[in-house]
Amino acid sequence: MMREWIREREEIEESPEKLKKTKIRNRNPDYPELESTVFQWIKEKRESGICLQDYQIQNQAMIIKNEIGADEKFSASRGWLYGFLTRNNLSLRRVSTTGLDLPKDTRDVVSNFICECEDLVGFLKRIHGADFRKRFFNMDETAIRLDEPNNYTYEITGTRRVKATTSGHEMNKVSVAFCASANGEKLPALILVPRITELKDFVPPYNVLVVYNKAANFSSPVIRDQFFRRVYQPHLDRNDVSDSVLIWDSAPCHKSKEIDTYTNLNSVKIKSIPPRLTNLLQPPDVCWFKSLKQYWNDWYINGEHSETAAGNLRSPGYVNLINWISEIWRNFDEDMKLITTLVSIFKIRIYCVDLFKG
């Protein structure tokens, strides 16, 4: 074809209107049996959640070549690899989900959990009538870091180095516990700041409780002394609630003698979400936390910045972070309406199990 273009160069240059785009189609593979076997091997590994790199595919192709006695000329070169990937609609993708796979009995576990929640709702309704919602709570913790850049950005196509500038504080964090009742009432957000001394001249917003804790991690004593005694119980007292139900995940710090003793003495019925299923059954994971990173990015693009003596970007700091958390929690009024139909959320989420189980 190149020879024809060279031979007809003058005619082509003089008649540009005759030019037309030609779609280049992938040619048939030279080793169809080998490629089919390699493709099946990739499918099996990915169905098991195993990550594959290009060299592993090339090595496996050579193993399969020897097993099936393919042409000795085949060398699993880079050129072959790129052609193979294109022919089989394979591309390098960013991992979006990590961790253990869902349990085999996931659907039964989710269904049982939903039924148990419905039983609790029915029990509270029979005793308290329409007031049952103010006795039904959901709580979850998360870590928020001083540097939270996006993992994706728009950049000029072909750019080799796609940089995300930060202040170098990706490992510095605060831990936050959010809790709300089924009637949409939000309890103060409990924020653990990794400091021994208080932030100078800082008065926390009304809707957060700041606790200075060197590790800034939620442990059983911290949950008992800070969450239950300073956030949860005061809210129950203000609303004249004597018995309640609290749904949270199965974190180890939620399962301890301190927690059991406190909740039993204070008539708090605990319902733990089954392990490995919070992405299906924990409402905060669905709607509460999704906008946290947005505030850091908005500050980075539009906010006021300062630099260190070395000329590096200074982090937003704990004061900004606490104020962002306060604003996020205050603006969740619309999202809180979702919690009024907590069990309905559980019912909707069960369909996700069918998707995951195929």
UniProtKB/TrEMBL annotation:
Alphabetical list of Pfam families matching this protein: DDE_1, HTH_Tnp_Tc5
GO CC annotations on file: nucleus
Domain of life the protein comes from: Eukaryota
The entry's keywords: DNA-binding
GO molecular function, one term: DNA binding
Domain HTH CENPB-type: 22-94
InterPro entries according to UniProt: CenT-Element_Derived, DDE_SF_endonuclease_dom, Homeodomain-like_sf, HTH_CenpB_DNA-bd_dom, RNaseH_sf
SMART domains: CENPB
PANTHER family: TRANSPOSON
Protein name: HTH CENPB-type domain-containing protein
Organism name: Brachionus calyciflorus
Classification lineage: Eukaryota, Metazoa, Spiralia, Gnathifera, Rotifera
